[in-house]
Amino acid sequence: MPGPRLVILGKQGAGKGTQAQRLAAHYRIPRISTGDMFRTAVEHNTEAGQKAQKYMEAGELVPDDVVIEMVEERLKDSDARRGFVLDGFPRNAEQARALDEALGRKAVDLVVELEVPTDVVLRRLASRRVCLNCGAPYSTDRPPAQNWTCDICGGAVVQREDDTEAAIARRLDVYTRQTEPLVAYYLGQDKLASVDGTGQPDQVTGRLLRGIDSRLNRRSGGTVDGDREEMG
Ligand code: AP5
Ligand code: MG
């Protein structure tokens, strides 16, 4: 049975990666994280990685053509036919329009915005650590069980290269100028659900699941899965 097609929006450190992973497990849909895809591409020194690296290190957006092509290709994979949660895409109006075009009739069902004040995200980013291999997020407050190796895949858990003070400030500025306007864009499509992203991760997940299920139930007049067609 198909799952939902979701986008998760929110400032850097709002918990998009943390919550997208949980939503993906709950609905049995893939989490598509452009940040993780780029970090893997940089690590493997692919063409996309070479193009992306300098922008990522500076806290700038990677050029739209590179990102859009990468996401369009990923959405063609068979696992995305039953739904997906997009984490970190779209990030500006150009990308949002490209996504609408790529999905056509099988458009995004719901865009959830995680609302977290800036002082809280700054604290979270300072203590964040991530798995180099699978991107799973940890923090100095919530480390992996064993010696900074990932609980999920055993990869090394490290600090991200763009979690420096200068790059964080740049990323937050880019968010305000380019990504925040998407809230109005999706409100205009009646697809936006804003959720309080503060508190413990489990509390946030509970709010998200209640918000998503009630919005999608209302729209389909039935279950979250509804009777929508599969992509493909
Ligand atoms: P990306 O990897 O997407 O990074 P980001 O947007 O900067 O967002 P973050 O990953 O920093 O935050 P998050 O919301 O995922 O928070 P997390 O769950 O980790 O992008 C990186 C770069 O790639 C960009 O700067 C750009 O260069 C490029 N890029 C990516 N997509 C692009 C696009 N579409 N277009 C152009 N360029 C693109 O949580 C943060 C920390 O808080 C963790 O330690 C976590 O454990 C902790 N935490 C989470 N929830 C809670 C909670 N409830 N309470 C306490 N701690 C919590
Ligand atoms: Mg993230």
Tell me about this structure.
By secondary structure, this protein is of the alpha/beta class. The chain has a domain at 5-30 and 77-116 and 165-231: Rossmann fold (3-Layer(aba) Sandwich), CATH 3.40.50. 47% of the residues lie in helices and 14% in strands. It is built from 9 helices and 8 strands. A 5-stranded parallel sheet has the order 2-3-1-4-8. It has a 3-stranded antiparallel sheet with strand order 6-5-7. A hairpin with a 5-residue loop joins β5 and β6. α1 (16-27) packs across α9 (201-220) and α4 runs parallel beside α5. It starts with a strand and ends in a 12-residue tail after the last helix. Mean pLDDT is 92; it is low at 222-232.
Task: Provide a quick synopsis of the model.
The chain is α/β, with parallel strands linked by helices and 232 residues long. It has nine helices and eight strands.
List the SSEs and their pairings.
Blueprint: E1 5-9, H1 16-27, E2 31-33, H2 34-43, H3 47-58, H4 64-75, E3 84-87, H5 93-103, E4 110-115, H6 118-127, E5 128-131, E6 137-139, E7 157-158, H7 165-179, H8 181-188, E8 192-196, H9 201-220
Parallel strand pairs: 1-3, 1-4, 2-3, 4-8
Antiparallel strand pairs: 5-6, 5-7
Helix pairs in contact: 1-9, 2-3, 4-5
Provide the CATH architecture of the domain at 5-30 and 77-116 and 165-231. 3-Layer(aba) Sandwich
Element-by-element helix/strand order: EHEHHHEHEHEEEHHEH
Number of helical stretches of at least 4 residues: 9
Report the principal-axis shape.
Answer: globular
What strand line-up does the widest sheet have?
2-3-1-4-8
CATH superfamily of the domain at 5-30 and 77-116 and 165-231: P-loop containing nucleotide triphosphate hydrolases
**Main sheet record:** 5 strands, parallel
Strand content bin: 5-15%
Structural class estimated from helices and strands: alpha/beta
DSSP strand count: 8
**CATH class category of the domain at 5-30 and 77-116 and 165-231:** Alpha Beta
Q: Regions with pLDDT < 50 over 5+ consecutive residues?
A: 222-232
Mean pLDDT: 92
- Kindly, what is the distance between the CA atoms of the first and last residues, rounded to a whole number of angstroms? 14 Å
Query: Please, what is the oligomeric state?
Result: single chain
**Rg (CA only):** 17 Å
Chemical compounds bound to the protein: BIS(adenosine)-5'-pentaphosphate, magnesium ion
**Helix share bin:** 40-55%
The CATH topology of the domain at 5-30 and 77-116 and 165-231: Rossmann fold
